[in-house]
Design brief:
Blueprint lengths: L5 H6 L1 H16 L12 H8 L10 H8 L2 H4 L3 H14 L3 H27 L2 H13 L4 H5 L4 H18 L3 H14 L1 H4 L2 H12 L4
């Protein structure tokens, strides 16, 4: 029995593609894993140390603290995940950079899925995915820990489009709300983008 034969690939094609994309992301941005923090990262790390999610006796107080004006800054998702990472790994920069790389890999896979729905072409979708993954315009957001808020908003925007394309309308609304909590100025045009894509590609049908 050929474990890695054609039938195996067909049955697990999406999983294999996902693993290949994430592996490529790790290879492309591998140098980031040896980097330390940059610029604004230090200020945000100092703020993150004020909240620890695993102090059970202060859990509610910590949750309330994160939505105060100092923390909220219209980017709740970034501060939530940033404080979670700080609670888990402290000031070990390796895990923050690994998180950014993996998130960019997941975003690239979502681009592949959306492009596949739009074009119904495996090759075009794969090319689009790889162009998105290796685009130098995203290098700063991957290498710079504070730039993760851009990765978060991209993640939720792509999930919104992915959910809408499969008629998961409630999930699409939830992900749109989370995108607004990640970076509202980047999410405000999302409804118009959805309308444009619907007009051009009969999206979500």
């Amino acid at each position: 029995m050929r474990i890695f034969g054609l039938k195996f690939f067909k049955r697990n094609k999406e999983v294999i593609i996902f693993m290949l994309i994430v592996t490529l992301a790790l290879f492309t941005y591998r140098k980031a894993l040896n980097d330390f923090f940059y610029g604004d990262d230090f200020g945000f790390m100092d703020e993150a140390r004020a909240i620890h999610f695993f102090e059970i006796d202060k859990l509610w107080q910590n949750i309330i603290s994160i939505i105060q004006p100092l923390w909220f800054r219209a980017e709740f998702v970034y501060f939530f995940i940033s404080n979670l990472l700080e609670s888990l790994f402290g000031a070990n920069a390796f895990w923050y950079h690994l998180h950014n790389i993996l998130l960019h890999g997941v975003n690239s896979f979502l681009v592949f899925g959306i492009a596949r729905k739009l074009t119904n072409s495996f090759k075009v979708s794969l090319i689009g995915c790889f162009l998105f993954l290796s685009n130098p315009l995203f290098a700063e957001t991957v290498y710079w820990n504070t730039g993760a808020h851009t990765l978060y908003v991209a993640f939720f925007i792509l999930l919104t489009l992915w959910s809408y394309s499969r008629a998961y309308y409630r999930a699409a609304l939830l992900f749109f709300a989370l995108a607004m909590c990640a970076k509202p100025e980047a999410s405000a045009l999302l409804p118009y983008i959805v309308l444009l894509v619907i007009a051009l590609f009969d999206f979500g049908s």
